[in-house]
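Data availability (excerpt). The following record was deposited with the supplementary files.
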Amino acid sequence: MKRPLQFLIVGLPYSGKTTLAKELENKLGFARINIDELKFNEGYTDVGDDDVPDEVWKKIFKKADQLIVKYLKDGDSLANEYAWITRQWRDRARKVAKEAGFDTKLIYIKVAPDEIQRRWLENSKTKKRFHWPEKEFESYLRDFEEPTQDEDIIIFDQTIPVEELIKKNIISSSLKPPVF
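Predicted structure:
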């Protein structure tokens, strides 16, 4: 039997991380961690990350770390979705899984910055999801460190259907057969 894996879902805000993570949850039975949901559970629903106190972030990441270990030890592969803007942040999440005896793969949702900007502007009008304050959004665009091949990445540029991504890259790593 294959061991469960942590899949870091990496990309800029508005790239489709949550959409992909929910597909993995629904089609493959993955557990899912969404840092924004953990932040919202702490009562910070209408503010950007910069407005969340450091002590609350420590609590949020402690909870996320506990969930990583719990899900993997329970035998569930995991879609861990967060922007994972820097290599340092990604390495931190990898370390949590590794110390518990599990491996991590990275799915990079590669979307052109002009498309990200278009989605952000559209969301500013529709408010279909949490809307990042402009200052923070611009800092994410500026500070994002694109994953490199040595990070064991799967690149998803959204030119193929999610089902094809799953069949080609994820089924061989997952424990449960997909439901299409």
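Summary of structural features: Strands lie at 6-10, 31-34, 78-81, 104-109, 153-156.
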